[in-house]
Amino acid sequence: MDLLGAVFSIILILIVLVTNIIFIRKINRTNDSHYKYKIFFFLMSIASISAIMIIGAIFQNVVLIDYFKITMNIKSYQYRIIIMTVILIINIIANFTLLKLYLKRRERKSKNKINEIELIGKE
Q1: pLDDT for the residue 14
Q2: Can you say how many angstroms the Cα of residue 106 is from the centroid of all Cα atoms in its chain?
Q3: What's the pLDDT at 118?
Q4: CB of 37 within 8 A of CB of 27?
Q5: N or C of the chain: less Cβ packing under 10 Å?
Q6: CB–CB of 103/44 below 8 Å?
Q7: Closest Cα partner for 91 from 53, 121, 118?
Q8: What is the spatial distance between Cα 78 and Cα 83, in angstroms, rounded to a whole number?
Q9: If we measure between CA atoms, which residue out of 4, 16, 9, 5 comes closest to residue 94?
Q10: Does residue 32 contact residue 103 with C-beta atoms inside 8 Å?
């Protein structure tokens, strides 16, 4: 891995950390902050990165190379920067969308739980 790959890896790690920190702060405001939700969101963040990279590789191989017959120099810095920028932008959008949707789901579930105390005795 060269310097460009290291920068790309650091940026991906920062994206995951920032979205998880935001999630932890917002989930701690609710009464329903369990570790299982935090771990599940962390795993969803990593899965989204993996899915985006796999979809990008399939798109590149099937659509660009096989269908359109576009030949590219994979080792050039311009190509790598363009691919990394596209993957980073899509990953940022996906992680913040996951954050928003999962927080809505957690808040909706915590609002539906009504802690009613049944009073027994004379009224």
Answers
A1: 94
A2: 16
A3: 56
A4: yes
A5: C
A6: no
A7: 53
A8: 9
A9: 16
A10: no
